[in-house]
Amino acid sequence: MRALQPFSLKPLLRRAMANESMERYRQAYIDYKTVLQIDSSIQAANDSANRITKTLIDQDGPSWREKLPPIPVVPVAAQLHRWDGGNLPSENKPSTTDLNREEQVQMNRMYSEEAMEKFKRLKNEGNDFVKTGEYEKAANKYSECMKLNTEECTVYTNRALCYLKLYKYEEAKRDCDHVLQIEDSNIKAFYRRALAYKGLQVRKKNMAGILKHF
């Protein structure tokens, strides 16, 4: 990846999103934290850093911070002079407030596009795993999708299917319940929740039968 101009905001954020999309979570976390030193008002960077923190805790456990590269310290000058007005007369330069607002809009738009592409890629990978019967791997891909979008019902009904195949009936029921809170007439969610209930009833009956022998 091409070297960045030190503490250049937009290229740094693009690199952070690229690292996140390629699941290089430690590098992405460092870049997002550096971005926030330059401009703490960028909500997309803050949200991403929080999301990656959860991923790193799951991945590395309580000592996840010890495995991070050092976070660069951004000089005060880089924090205070994020925009170079060149030779424009001072009265023609946009105000700092206007620049920050426009910058925030651009960053959020760029982040949304990157997140959407990552969501589609993960969903397609999950669908491919379902086709080959690799339900655990598929469920993991759908779980990654949910970190990016909790309102997309398809990934919940798809993960519910995976859980049914894995005999994880409580988890399947929970996913279907979530969908029905958003779309109360979702046929797949109703059907798969019914299968989850049936699986739970069979398991309960089998457990009762086993206990009779003790």
Please explain how this structure is put together.
The structure is a single chain. This protein is mainly alpha-helical. The chain has 2 domains: 9-114, no CATH class; 118-211, Tetratricopeptide repeat domain (Serine Threonine Protein Phosphatase 5, Tetratricopeptide repeat), CATH 1.25.40.10. The chain is 71% helix and 0% strand. It has 9 helices and no strands. The model is unreliable at 80-99 (pLDDT under 50).
Concise summary:
Keywords: Cytoplasm, Repeat, TPR repeat. By secondary structure, the chain is an all-alpha fold.
Task: Please give the structural blueprint.
Elements: H1 9-21, H2 25-38, H3 43-60, H4 76-80, H5 96-131, H6 135-148, H7 153-165, H8 169-182, H9 187-211
Number of helices: 9
Residues in helix, % = over 70%
Radius of gyration: 23 Å
Q: Tell me the structural class.
A: mainly alpha
Summarize this structure as a short list of keywords or feature phrases.
9 helices, 2 domains, Serine Threonine Protein Phosphatase 5, Tetratricopeptide repeat, mainly alpha, elongated, Mitochondrial import receptor subunit TOM34, 214 residues
